[in-house]
Design brief:
With 87 residues, the protein is of the alpha+beta class. It is 17% helix and 33% strand.
Amino acid sequence: MSISAAKIKEKEPVAIAVTFTHDMICLVLEDGREVRTPLEFYPRLAKASKKALKHFRLLGGGTGIHWVDLDEDLSVDSIVCGRRANR
């Protein structure tokens, strides 16, 4: 069996902390990585107040993030991979 034929199941990234700079969302993952992605990738977050950005909760044991005031949900995997939100 070739390596390309082997199916490798990777664990979903799990966030344990979320912070913001003036232009970035910053995640700390349970495996020790820190990921920063531009807020401009997520228009609702980019336009939000600092207060609204800080009012979130982790979902699915840290695999997703929900912003209560913004009615916005993002998967941690999409942020880690740098996928932009649909406009």
